[in-house]
Amino acid sequence: MTEAIRLEVGDTAPAFTLTDDTGAEVSLSDYAGRKVLVYFYPKAATPGCTTEACDFRDNLGELNELGIEVLGISPDSVASLTKFKADEGLNFPLLSDADKSVMTAWGAFGEKNNYGKIVQGVIRSTFLVDEEGTIALARYNVKATGHVGRILKDVA
């Protein structure tokens, strides 16, 4: 097993193009000149990931007021993301990274401690990318509950 790379504040955000929950392609470059919060989560419709996604949903207005848009990325299929978005009334794009290449480039896939065992998996992570495409905030191994409130305190 290999330890994941870690992005830090000031790093250039790795470029990506992924398919969203509607089947459209979305690229990080689509957000050039805007702030975007990119968060990685392990699996749609699981308790922790649902809590986190709904937290982003419920706070999207406040994030948008700060000029921040949100993208959620997981290894789920487009069909799973479409259902998750509809079931939870999510109001931001969900992107499918089935081969985990984007997660790996962002340091959001690799070794993690899961209930005392070291496993390979998705590392719940959140990044704020600024208008120039630079990492302005990088958080790894975040907790699903209360995470968005902590992000809002950091960026407000």
From TrEMBL:
Thioredoxin domain location: 7-156
Gene3D superfamilies referenced in this protein's UniProt entry, alphabetically: Glutaredoxin
CDD domains: PRX_BCP
Stretches of the chain forming a coiled coil according to its record: none
Catalysed conversion reaction: a hydroperoxide + [thioredoxin]-dithiol = an alcohol + [thioredoxin]-disulfide + H2O
Source domain of life: Bacteria
InterPro entries xrefs: AhpC/TSA, Peroxiredoxin_AhpC-typ, Peroxiredoxin_BCP/PrxQ, Thioredoxin-like_sf, Thioredoxin_domain
UniProt-listed Enzyme Commission number(s): 1.11.1.24
UniProtKB keywords: Antioxidant, Disulfide bond, Oxidoreductase, Peroxidase, Redox-active center
Function comment: Thiol-specific peroxidase that catalyzes the reduction of hydrogen peroxide and organic hydroperoxides to water and alcohols, respectively. Plays a role in cell protection against oxidative stress by detoxifying peroxides and as sensor of hydrogen peroxide-mediated signaling events.
Family the UniProt entry places it in: Belongs to the peroxiredoxin family. BCP/PrxQ subfamily.
PANTHER family linked: AHPC_TSA FAMILY PROTEIN (PTHR42801:SF4), THIOREDOXIN-DEPENDENT PEROXIDE REDUCTASE (PTHR42801)
Subunit structure: Monomer.
Name the UniProt record assigns to this protein: thioredoxin-dependent peroxiredoxin
